[in-house]
Amino acid sequence: MSSGMHWWIVLLVVGNTLGMWWLIWWASRPRAGEAATGEVTGHTWDGDLQEYNNPLPRWWLWLFYITIGFTAIYLAVYPGLGKFGGLFGWSQEGQYETEVDRAEDTYGPIFASYASQEIEALAKDPEALQVGQRLYVTYCAQCHGSDAKGARGFPNLTDTAWSWGGTPDAIKTSILQGRMGVMPPFGPVLGEEGTENVAHYVLSMSGRESDADKAAAGKVLFDTQCVACHMPDGTGNQALGAPNLTDDDWLYGGSLQTVMATLTGGRNGQMPAHQEVLGEDKSHVLAAYVYSLSQPK
Hints:
Blueprint: H1 3-28, E1 40-45, E2 49-52, H2 58-77, H3 92-115, H4 119-122, H5 126-139, H6 141-144, H7 168-177, E3 179-183, H8 187-205, H9 212-225, H10 227-230, H11 256-265, E4 267-271, H12 275-293
Antiparallel strand pairs: 1-2, 3-4
């Protein structure tokens, strides 16, 4: 925060606090010519309804002054005046770190005990799965859904289609380090006709309805432009995150128009890294839960 912004905030806070005090004092002081306390002010409605000069009780008025005094004490003790940190040195970052440390002292040994076990074993432990499920709902459900079946652009975690691998170690690596999936745009390379032909060939590999002649022409282009990532047989490459094109799992949709849009403009997907947020031990338990989702019950 710059010095100018610091003093501007101080001016606003102090000015508004003094302004409230002045407003209360000005509104409550007696004025020349006004009716005395308990007398009619002269305002009458419907002939019988009259306004009397009955100020607020003094105790009520003093409550306003007390709140202003509380404001002054609060601003002296806690942050609120620009860069001034308060007499106690409290900060929301410090409070957060204190609570995190307290939680780590309480729950750290529990996660450490889970981390000492193999993920396959934890995937069969009901208590560990409950812990992993809570972590999933907190950190993963926003993208993959509460049922872990994903959405458009977000993988289904309950099936066996894994772009980066579905082994325990691969899942844990995805959680810790994140993933960056990039499908480059091929529209300028293939052209409109070539894009349509390759799309028909891709659909044919998964058994979907396609034009045989266009698929045959598309195979030639696929063999020169796509095999480096998706392999000659279209089964993909988990080391690169290139999906299997021979199954019926489609991250962005498997219609002809969607496949053509993917080929033309490419796709970019990012799985954020959770190393800093979860750490090794919590990621271990979470990986066990995610691994269990795709295993036979």
